[in-house]
Design a protein that fits this description.
This protein is of the alpha+beta class. It contains three helices and five strands, in the order E-E-E-E-E-H-H-H.
């Protein structure tokens, strides 16, 4: 139902005011968005017609304001949203790339070292005989001082004070990429 009243107070900077209406016992709130978009600003003392609705906060407010001889409107002004920040959709490929890069780096750093052994395959009794004749304990203790994996294995089994098996599993120089 359309009601007539007079705009009693108006705050142009904040875009709202209050309407005095003879049929209502209190002033009715009105927002600038309820006025027609004809370019004319609301003026204190002008007569207007409107409808009353409850807002989302439960308070009554004037909507679909019409000036004498004008057309009522219920449209809200269009807002143009501009932002210099990238949206979530623009960040998704970047985050995916960073995640893949981290995963590849993790896999690279934690991949086992491949070791290629060349030469004849010997059983344990043959290996002991061959190694005991070709290698001698001469005080070397570290992997960097060894010339082959077989030499490192001989030293770890037969020579005291070697420092080539950090985890004590019987396999020397596990992180040395030369063997």
């Amino acid at each position: 139902m359309r009601i007539h009243g007079t705009l009693k107070k108006w705050n142009d900077e904040r875009g709202f005011g209050f309407i005095e209406c003879p049929s209502q016992d209190k002033e009715i709130f009105v927002h600038i968005s309820a006025f027609p978009h004809d370019g004319g600003r609301p003026k204190v003392g002008e007569t207007i017609s409107f409808e009353i609705r409850s807002g989302s906060d439960g308070k009554t407010r004037a909507v679909a304001v019409q000036r004498p001889g004008g057309v009522a409107t219920n449209r809200r002004p269009k807002r143009t949203v501009t932002s210099s920040k990238p949206g979530k959709a623009a960040l998704a490929p970047v985050l995916l790339f960073i995640g893949l890069l981290c995963f590849a780096g993790y896999r690279f750093l934690n991949s086992p070292q491949s070791v290629t052994v060349t030469g004849p395959v010997l059983n344990s009794s043959q290996r002991g005989q061959t190694e005991s004749h070709s290698f001698t304990c001469d005080g070397r203790q570290h992997c960097s001082e060894m010339r082959s994996r077989a030499e490192a294995e001989f030293f770890i089994r037969n020579c005291p004070n070697t420092k080539m098996d950090g985890d004590n599993d019987g396999i020397p120089c596990e992180n040395d990429s030369r063997f």
